[in-house]
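Archive transcription. Copying these from loose printouts into the bound notebook so they stop getting lost. Printout 1 of 2:
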Amino acid sequence: METRPGDYPILSLPVGEMKHEYDVVVVGSGYGAGVAASRMARAGKGVAVLEVGREWRGLGGGSLINAGVFLEATPEVIQMSAWPAEIREDPDAMAEYYARASTMLQPTPYPETDLPAKTKHLEDTGQQFGKAGSFSRVPLTTFFERGRNASGVSMCANQRSGRESTGLDDGSKNSIPVTYLVDAWVWGAEIFCGCEVRYLERDGSSYIVHFVCHEKSGRIGEQQLSVRAKEFCFLGAGALGTTEILLRSKKHGYNSTKDINGVAGSNRPGPTITSMIDLREVNNPLEGYIIEDGCIPEPIAPVLQILLILQTILNFKFLSLLCSPLQQIRRVRAVLKSLLLGPLVPGGAMQRTATYLIMSHDSNEITMTMRNDEPRLEAVGERRGANIRRIKYTLRAIVRGTSASMVSCYSDQVSAHLLGGATMSRNGTGSEGVTNHLGQVFMGHGAEVHAGLVCCDASVIPMSLGVNPLATITALAERSVALLGKKRCLEFDLETKNGEINADSRPRVSHSTGKEGKHRDGDYVSTGWEFTEALEGYIAVPASASGVDCHIAEREGRISSSLLRIILTVEIYRRVQGATEPRYKGICTGTVSCRALSRLPMRAISGELDFFVPDEQGTDSTTLSYTLPLRNVEGTELTLTGLKTIDLSSALSIPRLWKATTTVEVHVTDARGERIGAGVVRIPGMSSLYRQMRTFHQTKKPAHISMLVVFLLYFMFQLIVVFFHPLISRFWDRAHPRTQEKERSHGRDSGKQRPSAIHEIVTSDNVKVKLDVYNAAKTDSQQPPILFLPGITGLNPAHSIFTLPFQRCNMVEYFASRGHRCYVLTPRWGLDERVAGECTVFDSRLDIAAALEYIGRASENSKPYIVAHCQGSVALSMALLTGTIKADQILGITANSVFMNQVFAYWNAIKASSPLLIRAYELLDGPYFPIDFSTRTKSVSQRILDFLLSLYPVPRRDRCSSPACHRTSFAFGLLWNHRNLDRRIHDNIDRFFTGTSTKSLEHITRMDSAGSCLDNNLNSLLTIENLENLRGVPILFISGSENEVFSPETTLKDYELLRRAFGEGMYRRFLVDGYGHLDPIVGKNAERDVYWRVKGHVECCLQNEHTRTNEPNDLEFRTEGEHCTLNYSNQPGKDMNGVSNGTSC
């Protein structure tokens, strides 16, 4: 492991910050790759470097573990026939580029002062060769004095540890990360570690680089990503790595490669290699070689010691003991000393062992092939045994002169550095090699090349060099990049210096588009922890453009086998500003795989996961929301949004809580925001969740375990609050009272239309009621006025149910914008406390009559249309039945939930079966049941009642923690399906419901017992004579299919009764699927689902005002008690109770 100087910047970026495309993509980070990255960055190109290893361990390639010997290949080698003509025929072809490499790597011989013992030994040995041998100290890319290198990085002096080949650097090694790569980083290159490139794909003039991300440990599954190289893709992954990539690319349909045709302690000893004996001055360049001194790294000395002892025992000869007994005794003593006291003890066998590295030529005998997507190396052919024997003979002569024994472990040859694999062609065509003289990959056997695909490492070298190859690899890369840049008219700025590079330095050039790193703002700080999540499911593509149900889409996707797989690594961020309560978010990177969306996995970059955000579209629910920007290989930009919704339906149910926390509803939209897919993905099972929990680990920044513990406790707390809500709801109010206070204090209703006028009108019994007027948006509109009649909502509510400011589009706003003048009545039960405590629904019929009289005077030429809800609708029916208002005063009616007949839903029917519940409450707290406590203090009895009402039986989906909601459910029944309310509406229930008098409640329960509307003396108003007063009034009945206040049978009975009495043309009934009692008025989507139907009925009434059918059907009346029942003759398909056997709509 390399230990860098402390004053050194971090070069790599998280893979999540990688852009979809770059001008240049460099694969690898060794000598050739470093050159390509540096020079292209200095040419102003956007560069990405992909390295399979980690920073500090792998970034820098072979430069991290070699000895740093900078030796140029001899001209005789370069001029051999294996090289391309452009190189071998030009004596100066490489000189300029060797010089460039030397300028960056700054090779320096070991200083003459204080030479290591092994250097002096090799110098003495070289004297045996006389003029035939040449001893010299080799140039090393190592600093022997403290200073800054050519790239501006501070370097330390070499500590003579001899560990350079193990990767442990003392800060003196001028490796690629501190030279070419840091230079590329300064000039804007982006470096990404943990990216194993698998294969390449040509796409027009660009190249798609497919890689697997190993940046994080403990991932769930393999994430295959891709990045596009628009102009150049440089392969610098080494002789093996580059060849493997090209071979695998061929397997994936890429036709640019072929099989390989080339070679592929106390007393510090000094650097690994310091000097050499040069024996290359021979007639045949292939017979020349050099002998370099070596050094056994300290960590492997014990292992090597055992191997050498075993070799000595195997080669021991008894006669040698008789011939030289003293020498053998000294050897045994040295061996025992090393065994007992360690390999580094002075005088031990290991300290008396010399190591030599021979740099020679071999026979180009290794072939790589791909089997089962894995590389296979095969050694075939002749081994040049005569050359090896000649080298061994020379070594024995050297050893014999020092009275030592030569030990050669095993007989196999070992290569310190493989060369070739994608060799340069000697004749400029693909028939003799893989690349041309510039490293461009041939398309076939001819001279045509992939202009932007360039090999720039040891893989292009067509033969063995006879010296350490780093200088030649670097020079060839310098040459390729320079000549390719000249072809493309690129200008390389090689003169500008970087200045001093320190730990706090920043790149001088940035190619950022401004879209990356958006999470790095002052509101969030990283916790230093991340985890990986895997989700699988099905998606339907294309899905309906709007209103698609994700679970239905999932079923469609399952039928068509449209699998969606998401693997995300989520770095956890903690919010520190801009919020009054703890909140976490995650920054997501990973892959989204779906063949219906893209033929290859799509990469998610800088996606966001918001943890436990209150669901503004729901009530008392919290969400984990995903937003993932995607881009497929076809270049299409998509956005995947996902939602985990956790609501109170999961309370006290482990299976439901598990389902909520592991299920994500997803939608996919294109760049225009149009929905192109929908579905559901899930964590597959408990085992997958267990693997996910094991993926928590630290990011590269220091992180304390406490940060993870706090996050996990926060996560568990949110789930516990939901699970145990029925038990702790009174102690933990999750209704967000601060939000309600904000509504009151800041007036979020300011954007809604306010009343144009407020009139106080007097009824015939001298009671004052309020009539709010909202003018039409169009002053010249000919649309009829509309009168809105609410149900019982209590004294002086802040808003009418028809004008809620926190509803996206309320009913008055809807009709006023369409040219209707709107009148909203506040009946007597909502103004004066004394009057409200004494009035009944029957009394309120006079309020409607007074309002119609006022509207009639204001709108002489137009009859008003009436929209009535609940008891407002009952009061309207009473006014018509008693003749208080006439049928010809009204254009038409929409009656929501109830009109004349009344059939309570199950729980309301139980409560209404006896007046004891009302009497008990009156005894406890008086004749008024409050819902809003903003102007009164909540007594102990009311707090106890709150707790009891939280246990009121409602369906699981409608569980909530709002005391106001519980109180409305107790007083009137469950008023809505909670899915149809958003958070703003639900959090402000006490702004449009304040309470009710027990006298009104008692009158309502009496009417339910009777089954129809009653006057104050409990006489039925639904008589034969009274019913005739409704003749000619068109009515639209609306009921929610899930109404828990009045059964949908209520409006069905009225609908059947009236159309049998007066004909079928005047009446319509609309059963709103999935809605309850009040949400057809105040629901978040009521505009889309309900209002249009009312508007259509208004238009229908205008068209048919003069063509109403007033002839009755054949009716036979019989009296039962105080109300009438209609028996129908000659009406097929109907039973005797006037209820349709079929479906009415």
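Printout 2 of 2:
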Amino acid sequence: MAAFTHLHCHSHFTLLESTSTITGLVQRACELEMDALALTDRGNLLGAYEFSEATKKAGITGIIGCQVNIAPLGMAEKSRDMHNLVLLAMNPQGYTNLMQLVSLGWLHGFHYEPRVDLECLAQHHEGIICLTGAGPDGFLNRHLQAGVMDEAVRQAGLLQDIFSDRLYVELTDHGVDGPVSLRDANRDLARRCSLPVVASNWCHYLQRDDAAAHDVQLAIQKVTTLSDTRRRRMPSQEFFFKSADEMAELFADCPEALAATREITERCRESGIPYEGYHLPLFTCPHEHTTNSYLKAMCHDGLQERYGDDITDEHLQRLQFELETIENMGFEAYFLIVQDFINWAKANDIPVGPGRGSAAGSLVAYCLGITDICPLRYGLLFERFLNPGRKSMPDIDIDFCKDGRQRVIDYVSDKYGSQAVTMIMTLGTMKARMAIKDVARAYEWTPAESQDLANLVPEDPGGKHTIPVCLGLKPLKDGEDATVESMRLRYENDERTRVVLDTAMRLENLGRSLGVHACGVIIAPGPVHHYVPVCTVKQKPATQYNMSQVESCGLLKMDFLGLKTMSILKKAADIALATQSTTTPILYPDLPMDDTRTFELLGEGDTLGVFQCESSGFQELIRLLQPDRFEDMIALVALYRPGPLMANMHIQYCDRKHGREQVDYPHPVLEEVLEETFGLFIYQEQVMNISRELCGFTPSQADDLRKAMGKKVADVMAKMKDMFIEGAWERHQFDRRLAEQMWDKIVGFASYCFNKSHSACYGQIAYWTAYMKANHYPAFMTANLIYEMGNKDKMSLFVQELRRKGYEVLPPDINRSGWEFTPDGDAILYGFGGIKGVGHAAAEHIMEVREISGSFGSLYDFCERISTRTVNKRVVDALIRVGAFDALHSNRRALLETMDRAFDRGQRIARSREQQQATLFDVFEEDPEFKADTQGYPDIPDFSEHERLDFEKQLTGYWMSSHPLSSYQDSLKPHTSHVATDLRQRPSGEIAIAAVVISKRTIKTRTNKMMAVLTLEDLSGRFEAVLFAGRSNRRGDYEAGPYDRFAADCDDNLVAIFRGKVDERQRRRQAPPAPTLAEEGDEIDPAAAMESEQTQEDDIPSLIVSDVIPADILQERLTREIILTVDEQLGLDAVLPATESLLKEHPGACPLMIHVHTPDQVLVKLSADERWHIHPSKDLIQGLQKIWGARHVHPIFARPDTDMRA
């Protein structure tokens, strides 16, 4: 076999320009028996770390390189003229310089793409081999193509001056030549300059048959179609990873070019990413201290502050052990850095969570103020956080108030330098649905067609349902068959679909875009790009390596999480103090942990707004448990996960707590460790404690055992099993047979056990929120409304609960509302910030004008005083429709009719004032309209209640003045059997619930049938209802199902009675499954936690619908008569003409009555003759409400009969 090394290869990290993965490149090189390979992605080192690890594992030399863009006019010049060179790192120095070049190209030379110039190359060239570039954009090829050999020679000389004997002229041959053969021209140039030549194939994909998928990828990159003749495309199908023999055949006339690849390989044998230990930023201590002495001093001061006179030998010994461990590992600076920015946050009124993850097990962290939960009191272990026998960087994740998170990052950036603090890159890949839509667009499918095909892939944030899995070509990782039958059938029977899916499979999971990690921040001793390569994402610096890779490079990574709950708690405390719900500031770490009202609220399952406890499944569990101590809250967080629930551990815990099940302990040591959880293994720390106390494991060995069990590392567990059994015998003469049974029991539960430190931290936040809800309800609910503005579903739930508890949410008031919600006695006043279309600037202006010159007296007064540039008609329209002007004039329709006139009048006055050409009196004199009643409104009927509710829902996300069901209560209640909250009891048999449709999702099942999932709401809560399609009977005739009969009419805001049965699978379930907070035994992923905070699905069982009866139809059939009431405020003369016209449009058999209230309080009842009998349709009633006003129109309903559809 010929000797050859590929030195110019792109991977999918050259975004949307290569179909090759790192794994694929390395595997292909091994298949072709190549002992080396270079990675040279364009303008980045995104894949360098993965490439380095993959080549090491494969036992071949991985040469780290990059195809860099050279800006001929200089990096500072904003020109799109750029040409490429290939740079290869020979050794660690070369890697460092390459990292510098690539980073500087992003940070200082970016214009459409990262660019460097020759001056930058000259400063960072040591240890780098340079190839002159490939294709028409190669550094010398631009001149060679133009036939300007002298200029090409001059430019080659510039490169020679920089790289000397490390410069090679790159030759390629893809079977395509223009007017000038670049290969021949480059050989000629090399001879003239006495430069060596080297062969490459500029690889963009692995196999020749990948060319078509790569062409689609290029079309996707430019958001165009394959038929676009102007788009970029490769000139041939030869840009694949060729074998050494294929390259030898191509360069048979130039063997020295092949030999040069091996020469370069030997020069680059030391290429790779050097590991140089940890790179912690320098923490400046007071001059009399070292980092070690300063940490000790701070910890002892903190110990005194935390415990005062209650310090015991246990505290001192634990602190000494932790400090010695930290000193031995060299992490003193780490703790000083973390405590510094946490305590800065606390001092600057930025709330910080009590802790997160295993860090809460550290007494040092508690004494420094990093955490706020005592590890000794709750049995939390330091070695769960920092294993004395295994040196690895501590990992402290911090929950900051969401509003203050960026301020903390800014503080850290100012302290250590902006170049030393940066975010972490994430790679956005083409998941199944996106790949299908992208490819379909390239093949000129319509958006509807591509979406329809993409929707066949099940919704799956984790990306497990890949296209091959959906087509049945591969199982899921656990071996489950997840074939989507409708997709498989389309693939097999439709050629267009097959082409799209085949191509999409080749592109699935390849890189598509760059993003930023939700919470990860790097803090380095100096500029980050001195340690890892840096790019920019949305013009902000980010590492080019992902989170785990930057940690492996020894950099300090912190997770700065913005936890909305901390913001809610701070706001609630501020409101409670401002409204005198409390006379002293609320300090959450100082709250009593045995508050009776708090545990009563929890026992009732009243947990809307309580951190981590909102889902109905959690509510069921907490009602079952009836917690009465904080330790129960810790257990709840650990128990409410899929594993423990499926094993019925939550039932056992509750039964044992309340004495319904006996607890037996085979040994006193087990009782000591497990008594807190009634003999159940719930926490990982319990496994560790038993191995230490029963079997004599060291703290380090105990943590190793915990980790091995959690990860199911068989060989380590086998070794430790013997240690466990023998240790139990030697230490306590514990029977070996019983010890083996105990081992098996621990192994069985180990995968369910959770990190107690994390449970304790999040249990504490849950307790704090429950405490505020129980003791400062209006302040707590107001804070929740403020931070849920924009989340219409959550807002609706809070408003429903407030109304159930006797608190009203008042519509916004133009004279009283602020940007946020505010408490108002036993009510909460809506804020401008919750109204769609009312921006912050407009709201601030309204409040400023109101503050300076007093309340507004009318719409006219409002329009005169505000700036119409800041508060435009769209804003005023929204304010009127949601009722913000109701206190000034209650008829919203009249206000809208007046708005244009009031606005124009205000603008004229404003212009006159600005020009100082006229007084207000002069304006009145010039305009006859201004002489008229300037405060007048048209005398027209207001909107109907239905219309008002529609406006409110559109602009705020929920119904403010009432609920759509309210006006139907009298007619619907006799025909219903249950309300939404009754579904938690999982009733059997057919039930009927009156509800309003919130949303509808239409889904195609795996068997290619349609179904609809409705989100419904009544006055008690929300639930889901499912409408299935019909099916064929035995004769083959199709029998329509609920989906076929009702789905089309179930639009948003439909009020109806829904009949059906609770989903039998859910009805049999003792408790709903919990959302997955983490992999079993692992801590919660910080980024995932930020995304999923308080978004757990409420698991009220679904209703399988059999019948839908719209309320309007039912009400129409049950209406016995309609009564119109007349009082002093309603003159008959004003309404009779329009009423007569409306009644003629709706003739029927329903009687019409008119009740007149005379001035002396006499009620006169008039009955219209049969000529005016009407059909009581929805349109008629709404029409009467418009003319007479809703409070003057009263349908009277008949008693319920047995058949609502009769």
